[in-house]
Structure prediction request, 361 residues.
Amino acid sequence: MNAILKHAFKGWELENPDRPLIIAGPCSAESEEQILDTARQLKAMNIQVFRAGIWKPRTRPNSFEGVGSIGLEWLKLVQKEVGMKVSTEVANVKHVYEALRYGVDIIWIGARTSANPFAMQEIADALKGVDIPVFVKNPVNPDVDLWMGAIERIQGAGITRVGAIHRGFSTFDKTRYRNAPQWQLPIELRRKMPDIPMICDPSHIGGRRDILQEISQKALDLNYDGLIIETHCNPDKAWSDAKQQITPNDLSKLLGKLVLRNVNTDNPVFLHTLEDLRQQIDKFDDELLTIIEERMKVAEKIGEYKKINNITILQPDRWQEILNKVLEKGKNRDLSDDFLIGLFKAIHQESINKQTRIMND
Ligand code: PEP
Ligand code: MN
Prediction:
């Protein structure tokens, strides 16, 4: 486990600390049997943190909205009888007090709540003076500042162990994901808040079982600190999010297949430097696009001018002249002929396409 995560869980005697933190358990607590059955199987796999929703934020009324506080009794059994840490979602002050009263080990804030600064502030105020790890899911809408603001409100309450959970973002368009991952957003959050551990929630990103593996692997390749994966003893019969939940046995297979690449991740200097360099690349890419766009606008003007004067689009001499000039200038810039020819052929072709369109308009 890296230094950041170690800090987030200081004082906890977690076993196998080198693996990413795995949080597993059902979307919702449904019954004492379901909770204990699932927890025992997870514990046998050496998973140390259990999750279960007690109060469920549902998109539309009249679907299962959680069992409420009785589920906290079952989580207590998971702590006492199974020996796992337990976590649940809180969405308002009452939930916070209930979760604290029952001694929940970790709380998380859901995506609909983290999008609401009033709710976040009330939850933060209720947590003042409490020493509990809090994970903040990304807001449903892709807004890094809103996500940061939610985290800052929790930090502002004096909570030192704050983590982030990436669960993807709502989109109007149907994609292969339930919630589009938009990986650049958590990456940006990490850049701005490098001390916040980042956990990936492939279950709510994917919304389906068959892509949990690839999402989890991607998260590890991006050096996330952990995964939270919905796991149910009988997923097909789950009362919420049935399509994305998996059995503990399938979770075990998924974890077994994950490749933990050696990414000098313990070295924050390396990571930040790399991230900085990549930011520079991104900036240059943006500039390149702007410049190419400007160049195309000029090409279009030339097209219009040629049309008025009834001149052909392609003038071979001019194309040869451009190419010669570019190759000559490229020599002093350590850019290979092959690369320059390929690049300018593509640019030239796009100009021709634009001029053709104008000519035939
Ligand atoms: C959940 O974790 O079960 C949940 C409701 O998630 P989210 O807030 O990401 O929708
Ligand atoms: Mn769920």
User: Anything to note?
Assistant: Strands lie at 21-25, 49-51, 85-90, 106-109, 134-137, 162-166, 198-200, 226-230. The two ends are 62 Å apart (CA to CA). The chain has two domains: 2-257, 268-359. The domain at 268-359 is CATH 1.20.59.10 (Chorismate Mutase Domain, subunit A).
